[in-house]
Specification:
single chain, alpha/beta, Nucleotidyltransferase, domain 5, six-stranded mixed β-sheet, 21% strand, globular
Length: 181
């Protein structure tokens, strides 16, 4: 098991409500709390496979949810063109949604292209462009693309955007079509 932290001035011990971004992945499950330009992110990697890995990730999610009060939450939607273990990814997404439902939180489901457009201004490009644009646009330095995506998701659901296209995307995802209920 490994846990990678990225700290950006947000103190989770003060129990202030936060916006939460979740980038669900079996190989690097990321959660990021964000509020008032401050953030804290963790990426969890389990050494297990199969169901033991799912149980590890569930414990990680539960730990996070016990530490934060959530204003709103966004998670990355499925990459519909992805190849590989798509059923496993669906199970993981369902696990996240069930854990959030247990605390009466229903996430915004943000398609990967929408997140890329919010961060980079375009809905296409390489994963590493997200890290570069996040740094140039807002200042945080991420070395892990999962943590960076979770940060972008948290920022998006906060509604803090100042650019016209950021505001437009925030308004777009307020549609009930983007909320998992």
């Amino acid at each position: 098991m490994s846990l990678k932290k990225t700290e950006g001035g947000l103190d989770l011990t003060d129990s202030s409500p936060v916006y939460l971004g979740i980038d669900q992945s079996f190989t690097g499950f990321a959660m990021c709390a964000y509020k008032d330009d401050k953030y804290y992110a963790e990426v969890y990697k389990s050494n297990n496979k199969g169901m033991p890995r799912m149980l590890d990730i569930r414990a990680f999610i539960r730990d996070w949810l016990s530490r934060v009060e959530i204003i709103d939450v966004a998670m990355e939607g499925y990459a519909m063109g992805a190849k590989g273990k798509v059923f496993h990814l669906g199970e993981l997404g369902g696990l996240v949604k069930m854990e959030l439902a247990d605390i009466d939180k229903y996430p915004l489901i943000i398609p990967p292209t929408t997140l890329k457009k919010y961060v980079t201004g375009a809905g296409t490009g390489q994963k590493n462009q997200m890290i570069l644009h996040t740094y140039k646009k807002w200042g945080p330095t991420f070395t892990d693309d999962n943590a960076c995506d979770a940060y972008g998701l948290a920022r998006l659901c906060s509604g803090d955007g100042t650019l016209a296209y950021e505001k437009a995307i925030y308004q777009q995802v307020q549609s009930p079509d983007y909320r998992e209920i």
